[in-house]
Amino acid sequence: MDLSGINEELAEIEGQINDILRALSNGFQKLEKIKDASRRSRQLEELTDKMRDCKRLIKDFERLVKEEEATNSRDTIKMLNDRKQSMIKELNSYVALKKQQQSENKRVDLFEGAGAVDNGYEENVMLASSMTNQQLVDHGNHLMDETDQAIERSKQTVQSTINVGAETAAALKAQTEQMSRIVNELDSIHFSIKKASKLVKEIGRQVATDKCIMAMLCLIVIGVIAIIIVKIVNPHNKDIADIPGLAPPVNRRLLWLRD
After folding, report:
1. Of 6, 80, 87, 220, which one has the fewest beta carbons inside 10 Å?
2. Assigned domain for 81 exists
3. Cα separation of 49 and 52, whole Å?
């Protein structure tokens, strides 16, 4: 089926799917001729990867077909959907072949494993039958000793686990107490910070008050100095009262009045 006239991307995806389907057909034909179990498993893995890629490409094909529904006729869309269903059907046939090959491999492995167990059982029976009664007793005692040792090791492991659990619990308790102390210390630090902040505010207010008082004193001193300077420069100024200690002597004032 030529899809190049409809959509180049659809045609490219269909070509890739056809290549994978041909590769799957050839791969399963080769698989029938492979007798080695490990080689068959590797071949099946490769075929599984190809089927996974084919499934992904069919999904991309389906997505593009849905996008083309608005620009193509119903007959074209039906033809594309039929092609999609054909590819899905062929892929499903290979999936069924894969499941069949996997079930056959499992049966072969099961038969081989059963044979190995039977051989080991026969060897054990032959070994026991060749022993004398004393050897059987000694062997049984040896197995009992090994069992006792295994039980003792298990007890030691359990005791070690209990000890580790107790140490962990003690460590957690100590860490919990330490965290509680840290929280209490943080609360104390927070309280101290609040108290210090309040004290700093009070000190700031006191400093501001002291600054106001100093400013007023400075203004008073400046005023007094200004009056003194004016009195010295212009002693006849009646608008400024005499300041004690700065008035001129009485005799000098009388001489001024005579003049």
Report:
1. 220
2. yes
3. 5
Which tokens is 214 given?
A: 């100093």
In angstroms, the CA 93 to CA 24 distance is: 10
Between CA 161 and CA 48 the distance in angstroms is 46
Q: How many residues does the chain have?
A: 259
Q: Give the structural domain span for 90.
A: 8-130
Query: Does the residue 229 lie in any domain?
Result: no
Q: Which residues contact 98 (CB under 8 A, 6 or more apart)?
A: 44, 47, 48, 51
Question: Amino acid identity, residue 197?
Answer: S
Average pLDDT per consecutive 10 residues, the chain (259 residues; last block may be shorter) = 65 89 89 82 88 90 84 83 89 87 64 42 43 70 82 87 89 88 85 83 82 86 83 65 51 48
pTM for this prediction: 0.40
Tell me whether residue 256 is in a domain. no
Is residue 15 assigned to a domain?
yes
Question: Considering its fold, how many domains does the chain have in total?
Answer: 1
Cα(110)–Cα(252) distance, integer angstroms: 145
Rg (CA), the chain: 54
